[in-house]
Amino acid sequence: MGSTPQPRRGNTRQRIQDVALELFAEQGYEKTSLREISERLDVTKAALYYHFKTKEDILISVFEDLNRPLEELIVWGKEQPRTLETKKEILRRYSEALKDAAPLFRFVQENQASVRELSIGRTIKERVMSLIDLFMDPGTSLADQTRCFTALLAMHSGMFALRDAEGSAEEKRAAVLEVAFELITRAHGPEPESGK
Q1: What are the boundaries of each domain within the chain?
Q2: DSSP secondary structure letter of residue 186
Q3: Residues of 147-186 as b/e, b for ≥16 C-beta within 10 angstroms?
Q4: How many CB atoms within 10 Å of residue 134?
Q5: Interior/surface letters 69-104, b for 16+ CB within 10 angstroms, e for the rest
Q6: Is 11 helix (H, G, I), strand (E, B) or coil?
Q7: What CATH number should be reported for the domain whose range is 62-188?
Q8: Over the stretch 32-44, which tens digit does the pLDDT of each residue have?
Q9: Exposed/middle/buried for 128, CB within 10 Å: 0-12, 13-18, 19+?
Q10: Taking the complete model, does pTM exceed 0.90, yes or no?
Q11: Rounded-to-integer distance, Cα 51 and Cα 115, Å
């Protein structure tokens, strides 16, 4: 509804994922049936069952595919020094991962109640908490913890909040990233002076 469909990927498994996410976003996870997915794909339910037994199986597979870059980012971030530049680089990379996973995050945004009940809801929460941990140093104040959390929240919801704002998708993404940088910079505080 009102969104441009994502370009179709090649193989049947990927096409099922794409169509399912479109339907989940259009009419909600709970209101979408496997029959509707198979009809939109113009395949039999048996062909659909060959790849996925349930709607949740489809969603989990999408999440696993699109979540890989995020897992790699968390591993990379844990190995880096906790400098302001590292934190900004984490946000830059996260912004790229979100751009590539836009259909999934649109689904999550529009189906929050369903996501909380599904197994991926717990995993998403764990990933977000792992990212927040990368921004916080020991003894981070409550206000700065809030800034770190809000920086990630801005990354998640900013594109949806700006959906109808003027500007290209890239301009909107840059604006959201700028706000996240400001929050992380404030939470990080001044860099220690070297050589003293």
Answers
A1: 62-188
A2: H
A3: bbbebbebbbebbeebeeeeeeeeebbebbbeebbebbee
A4: 19
A5: bbeebbeebeeeeeeeebbbebbebbbebbeebbbb
A6: coil
A7: 1.10.357
A8: 999 999 999 998 8
A9: middle
A10: no
A11: 22
